[in-house]
Design goal:
homodimer, 206 residues, alpha/beta, Arc Repressor Mutant, subunit A, Rossmann fold, six-stranded parallel beta sheet, three-stranded antiparallel beta sheet, 9 strands, 17% strand, DNA-binding
DNA sequence: ATATGTGAACGGCTTCACAGCC
DNA sequence: GGCTGTGAAGCCGTTCACATAT
């Protein structure tokens, strides 16, 4: 069973399509054309069909796609039909906000634990997420077979913590620290740098 | 005076370079080679030089770049050498976290006001950012000539609020809502969707 | 000798055009 | 007729190779 690599950009868009489908399903829509779905996702219809081509083929020509079937297919392709466990490291301002952000669970992720070098229980109140000292991180990750981590520590500590995460078995990191992380090729990193997002935008304002 | 369009991706990377330069400057480094800077930014040296080519040419062959001069040049190219005013709309979990996030100011942005349909003073405590009712948003933006906004409202309201922002004169939006915003061509949007970042990552873990 | 600047080659993603199926 | 699926074409961004400057 070999897995054809889906381009990173396509993977990203597939996630977007899935969310759109979810919304359609909630509204009781059963069938959708590539044209309509593409518009909802903000892409061209040809692009949408190309992307779906990576996953398989399950449209009905002349009609469109079954919202139900397509949604399942994408979920299957992207993996994780059930909740994927994630840990969060760094419970500062940003970290604690992310904990309070309820959007993750809805999309199939569960933050099962948070770690900080100076745990402040206050910050996780009301989230139901247990908070541990950073020293326990490695063993927790290993024993719970956690594969994904959200990194929200200060830039100065980011690389060090990332190394620990990788050593403990983490394969994918969502990095909020304003640093370029050095990781092995088999570890994937998505960077979210709020300041840079703003800064790059500012070029475009006249 | 015409402005050659710099590709969006290059603009983004230039922001990254600028941050690296800033750090070098703090460390008293005066000169840097494309090789070294590229490594710090996580790109290839040829790419770095290509990107700098969009801005101008101020390297010394055989030597490298002056950290000082290069920094200034990039700042000039990206605009905004002084603090750019920004408003934040939607002070929920995420929004209030962003307010508490101190990284913006350091990078040249100042959140000068926050708006919410149900203002809860509690949430802005300690940030020094004034909080107003959403009803006052349009007039505030217009009278303060605000050109950038951070959007952190629920998906259901995102488009409506975006329309108001655009109508009031906002030209660039950093959108945290999980929605595809429809805006005029002359308005730029950067999307940050935390759930989708995680989801697209999850495909790559074995 | 060393490092920049840039035209040319390359590669991957997007778009087009159209064949195939309902 | 309408809409999907896909090879081919086109486009944009990255990388290479090397001329050029100090």
């Amino acid at each position: 069973m070999e897995k054809i690599e889906i381009p990173r950009k396509a993977v990203y868009r597939l996630s977007v399509y899935q969310r759109c489908l979810q919304r359609l399903r909630e509204n009781g829509v059963e069938t959708v054309s590539s044209e309509a779905l593409a518009k909802a996702a903000g892409v061209k219809s040809t692009q949408l069909r190309k992307d779906l081509g990576y996953v398989g083929q399950f449209g009905t020509r002349g009609l469109g796609y079954s919202v139900e079937t397509l949604g399942e297919a994408i979920t299957a392709a992207l993996g994780s039909t059930r909740l994927q466990p994630v840990v969060l490291v760094g419970v500062g301002n940003l970290g604690s906000a992310l904990l309070h952000y309820s959007g993750f669970k809805k999309e199939g992720f569960e933050v099962i634990a948070a770690f900080d070098s100076h745990p402040v229980k206050e910050r996780v109140r009301g989230t139901g997420v247990p908070l541990y000292d950073a020293a326990e991180m490695a063993s927790y990750i290993a024993s719970h077979a956690v594969k994904m981590a959200i990194l929200a520590v200060p830039a100065t500590h980011a690389q060090t913590v990332a190394n620990q995460l990788v050593a403990a078995g983490v394969q994918a990191v969502l990095n909020f620290s304003p640093t370029v992380l050095e990781v092995p090729d088999n570890v994937y990193v998505n960077n979210v740098d709020l300041a840079i997002e703003l800064e790059s935008l500012s070029y475009f304002i006249r």
